Amino acid sequence: MTPAFHGRRIALAVSGSIAAYKAALVARLLVTEGAEVQALFTRSASQFVGAATFAGITGRPVLCEMFASDAAGERHVEIAKRSELLLIVPATADLLARLASGRADDLVAATALCCTCPVVAAPAMHPAMWSHPSTQRNVGTLVGDGRVRLVGPVHGEVASGDHGVGRMSEPEAIVAAALAALAPRDLLDRHVVVTAGPTVEDLDPVRFLSNRSSGKMGFAIAARAAARGANVTLISGPTALPTPVGVTRIDVRSAIEMQAAVDRALGADLGAADALVMAAAVGDYRPARAHEKKLKRGPGALELELVPNPDILATVGAARGGTRPVLVGFAVEADTEAQVVAYARAKLDSKRVDVVVANHAADAFGKDDNRVSLVTRDGVQALGPAPKSELADPILDFVAQKLREQG
């Protein structure tokens, strides 16, 4: 699979803040995913981080001055022309003020003023500075003009030890925002419902029945759908995974709860969503009775009566009168690859879905990578092994294509 930022030209602007050390981590993540990164420093950035660090990570010298004797032409203009994204990490209160007023008094501000590409900024400052009316006015100007997209800040501890909104977003969230800014917007304003993770069926206050699903595949699909412009509702079973940027999350526990959440998200006539991606590993059975008190160990065997859970995807497929919402099912099996694909083909008809993502339990559960087959009535497309974040896009490509065909 192609790395997420393969060949993309990104200018990474670093300003003077204690949070600047995280910009090096952002640079590393971008380079690892194939980006060509050019680091730019404000005049004060070098008081917090070293240019040699960024040069070592990116393989390019850090640029600090707008005019240099060894540079031909106008450096800020050239950087703006060749960059597909300007990423500002961190964005201090001072830099935001200069950008809002259209200043061009250093290389970073001048480059931002020249850019026609997306500009993403990760603010970082003391909570008192972030909440100040002047900062909020500057942010409102930048966002309102459509010139800058913000990622963060978030609530947390800042350098002084104080707590509040002003802490810079973590590098992974910043990179996700960068990816979203560069993503195709082919799902713009579509409502995509994604289920993820395991379901949990309580036996008593201590014990439950569940499965090995980590939720990583569903969360990756939700994140990429949001990056491609969709309004995403993520319905998740119990998992510690963080909510992807721009995603509305609904936490559930049991299959019954997940079914109710899916029904609400799709609407009474299934008309409230354009697509349902059923990536959750929904338990097939639940205890016939959930005991209020812990079941005590006895001398003999314990027999449990299990009853079927609702088949959420099959229920939606049976109720769908036309082609909306697009339905994506998952099939996780433990047999041979041929049998896994055969099971997926059977699910196409039994559940009345558009595509089934087939994968082997040994490849999928608890791992960051996966290997899948997209099984449709027209054929089978094998994908991977690759990170789940990369496998999400081919699945969403199918969804986007189906929606385009439907008009």
Structure overview:
There is one protein chain. The protein is α/β, with parallel strands linked by helices and 407 residues long. The protein folds into 2 domains: 9-182, 3-Layer(aba) Sandwich (Rossmann fold), CATH 3.40.50; 191-406, CoaB-like (Rossmann fold, 3-Layer(aba) Sandwich). It has 14 helices and 19 strands. The strands form 5 sheets. An 8-stranded mixed β-sheet has the order 12-11-8-13-16-17-18-19, sandwiched between helices. It has a 5-stranded parallel β-sheet with strand order 2-1-3-4-5, with helices on both faces. Strand 18 (369-376) and strand 19 (379-387) form a beta hairpin.
Summarize the helices and strands and which ones pair or pack:
Elements (H helix, E strand, L loop, with lengths): L8 E6 L6 H12 L3 E6 L9 H8 L16 H8 L2 E7 L1 H8 L6 H8 L4 E5 L3 H5 L1 H12 L4 E2 L3 E4 L5 E5 L3 H12 L8 E6 L4 E2 L5 E2 L6 H12 L3 E6 L10 E5 L3 H12 L8 E4 L6 E3 L18 E3 L3 H8 L6 E8 L3 H14 L4 E6 H4 L4 E8 L2 E9 H19 L1
Parallel strand pairs: 1-2, 1-3, 3-4, 4-5, 8-11, 8-13, 11-12, 13-16, 16-17
Antiparallel strand pairs: 6-7, 9-10, 14-15, 17-18, 18-19
Helix pairs in contact: 1-2, 1-8, 3-5, 4-7, 8-9, 9-14
What are the salient characteristics of this protein?
407 residues; alpha/beta; Rossmann fold; 2 domains; 8-stranded mixed sheet; 5-stranded parallel sheet; 35% helix; 24% strand
